[in-house]
Amino acid sequence: MNCIRLQSVRLILIGLLAISCAKNDTDPLDSDESGGEMIGNSLHVAFETPDWSRHIDCSRLDLDPYDSGSTDEWVYVFASSESTRCTFVLSYPKYAGDLEKSGNIGTYPAAEYRKPTGPFQYGMSLPLDAQKLDSSFGRLVSTAGSSGQEFTEITEIRRVATDGEYAVFQIKGRYGFQSTLETLSGSAQGKYVKGTFHLKVRALIE
């Protein structure tokens, strides 16, 4: 009788352990949240304004770096989403050895759209809302800033592969920025934008 009870207890414990592991494996969110929005483990760019929000799948995005022009130490990647008509920019160190330094995890300024001034700065241009995708309605364009609400936070940098002269990394983070509404007739104060990203990028192997 005792043997039967002992076997029953063991089966229950094994079952609970299996359920616990399954939940961890399928959890789509980052368990190492340091504050703010949770960051999904899938490759993506997500944004939120007072008027709309979207989560853009970037699993098929293959980004090549562009030289910053003003320095040989960092590069940037950019891409556009056809469905949302938004374009994002992320800067990072040019060389793999510099990119994978543990001290890179931290908070950096938000970038003016297409004009980062150093590594680990995120910027974006996006429509006013889902009903105003056409450029004639104007665009919300990120402005440079460094404050509690204007930032690029890098939470994880992971080397995942090698591709010829490049090391392939995944960079995960969150951001927030004030924007300017740019229209054909001029510019005005825009809306606050925040979100997360998890992107695959390349850095040169020295």
Task: Report on the architecture of this protein.
This protein has 206 residues and is mostly beta strands. The protein has one domain. Helix content is 14%, strand content 41%. It has two helices and 13 strands. It has helices at 2-26, 96-99, and strands at residues 44-48, 53-57, 66-67, 74-80, 87-93, 106-108, 122-126, 139-142, 151-163, 166-177, 179-183, 186-189, 193-204. Strands 3-4-5-7-8-11-12 form a seven-stranded antiparallel beta sheet. A six-stranded antiparallel beta sheet has the order 2-1-13-10-9-6, with no helix packed on it. A hairpin with a 2-residue loop joins β9 (151-163) and β10. The model is unreliable at 1-34 (pLDDT under 50).
Write the layout of secondary structure elements.
Blueprint: H1 2-26, E1 44-48, E2 53-57, E3 66-67, E4 74-80, E5 87-93, H2 96-99, E6 106-108, E7 122-126, E8 139-142, E9 151-163, E10 166-177, E11 179-183, E12 186-189, E13 193-204
Antiparallel strand pairs: 1-2, 1-13, 3-4, 4-5, 5-7, 6-9, 7-8, 8-11, 9-10, 10-13, 11-12
Strand order of the largest sheet: 3-4-5-7-8-11-12
Largest sheet: 7 strands, antiparallel
Note the gap between the termini.
68 Å
Give the % helix: 10-25%
The computed structural class is mainly beta
Q: Which value, in Å, is the CA radius of gyration?
A: 21 Å
